[in-house]
Description:
The chain has 172 residues and is mainly alpha-helical. The chain has eight helices and no strands.
Amino acid sequence: MQSQSVSLPRQRFTMWLATQKRLLTKERLLNMKIQVDDSKCCLCQDTVMETNKHLFVDCEYATKVRDALLSWSNINLPASELNNILELIKKKHWKKFKKEVVAALWGAMVNHIWKARNWKQFKGVSLQHSDIVKEIIRKIVGRIEMYKDSKELLEVEVFGRIYVPRISFVLV
Ligand SMILES: [Zn+2]
């Protein structure tokens, strides 16, 4: 349990893809000379092309999800692409466990924005950003809870008390 990473494997994979800009955004499909009916972002009203940066950074939908998660976790990170954020997290003077949790939080965010995009794009279903935020928080809290009996607990408690008071209930 102790050696297990906080993020889920599938999330890590999506995160890796996003870091590598390998997700098949419409911009990437066009660059690969693959026809797309509509190159615009399907999550907002902007008439801009769906690029990696737009979808995960500039899009109104992404901004709402990110702002809610930053406010919930009481951390301060800029609006930037995942690879920049992961570099910033690395340089922070945070405990290793907090770095893992924040990286996992960001990974879950990318994963869920991508899911919302796919649901809208392929099923015509709009996932509310507030529901996405709730699901991300539920997953992250559940993941942290798995560390309850591990020796990481001390660090979780520090993290919980100081930085994420709203998840401290999982620690008692
Ligand atoms: Zn958008």
